[in-house]
Amino acid sequence: MIDLRSDTVTRPTEGMRRAMAAAEVGDDVYGEDPTVNRLEKMAAEILGFEAGLFVASGTMGNIVAILTHGGRGDEMLLGNLSHTFLYEGGAAAGLAGIHSHLLPTADDGTLALSDLRAAIRPDNVHFPRTRLLCLENTHNRCGGAILAPAYCHEAAAVAHQAKAAVHLDGARLFNAAIASGKDVSQLAGFADSVMVCLSKGLGAPVGSVLCGSRPFINEARRMRKIVGGGMRQAGILAAAGVYALEHHVDRLADDHANAQHLARGIAGIDGLKLREINGNAMPQTNLVYFRVDSEAVGDPALDAFALSKRLTQRGVLANAIGEGRDVMRMATHLDVAEQDIDQAIDALRSAMMET
């Protein structure tokens, strides 16, 4: 099977497996795991922060950040298409008791600065206190769109002027860095905290790192414990993250090239329409979103979910997105080669012609 459902489906490379097997370990809850300590220090330095915290997942990293920045009855500003709002089990409300103030997400993943300014609550006992702004880069539901540093600094300035913190869900921030040619620290420098995933495009089997100031990470470590994220001999997992940061960052360009190749193939198939980002139909990173137009092929029963089933029968896995039943996403990653993309395009063409 050619698995294009997500860049989370990657399997550890042989080099990564050897690094995991040879990892020096200790009890991380006591701060005694040298490999975890190395990963946290490495990630923080790369991203331009004082300290880092190894967590089990991106969702855990985001909720730990939210818990650290705010408290019960506080409010955070975020987009209505953000991963934190859509795909993290309602953790902000369920665990942190923090109110989500949703703002419209533009096609390029940004939130209008005028909307941000209008959303800041005045100091009044009737209102929750605006404590946090959450941004996402790259933006998943906006087709892997890259948020420009200039915009991020402007948005952060609005939040900071209101004495609110800024958290960046940077699950695929390294994709943004490679695609834009900017240092990853440039893309994170506006934020008070940032979470990056090791288990997506970087190919580790598990784990993310949350970075921020040393006092912030000290408090975040307490919050990680509260949500059950204190791990013991976690160096076996952290070693995969170290290996990923050392060996798998630059190769993200291959995933982006494969996504472009896939998009060109999709563009040539009747009944499929690529999602545009700022008027450009070509993906910016490794996520390819497209719509299924059943009318164009004269098949009213054909939607993204039906197409997904047809593709599975042809050896290709891809996710339909519950957005009017006509949106599909394909993600390229290190387990997908150029010839796999060719086969996926052939499978798409065949599936769209099925009657």
Describe this structure in words.
The protein has 355 residues and is an alpha/beta fold. The chain folds into 2 domains: 14-247, Type I PLP-dependent aspartate aminotransferase-like (Major domain) (Aspartate Aminotransferase, domain 2, 3-Layer(aba) Sandwich); 251-353, Aspartate Aminotransferase, domain 1 (Alpha-Beta Complex), CATH 3.90.1150.10. Helices cover 40% and strands 16% of the residues. It is built from 14 helices and 13 strands. The strands form 3 sheets. A 7-stranded mixed sheet has the order 2-8-7-6-5-3-4, with helices on both faces. Strands 9-10-13-12 form a 4-stranded antiparallel sheet. Strands 1-11 form a two-stranded parallel ribbon. Strand 5, helix 7 and strand 6 form a beta-alpha-beta unit. Helix 2 packs parallel to helix 11 (235-247), helix 3 packs across helix 10 and helix 12 packs parallel to helix 14. The two termini are 23 Å apart. The model has no long low-confidence stretch (mean pLDDT 96).
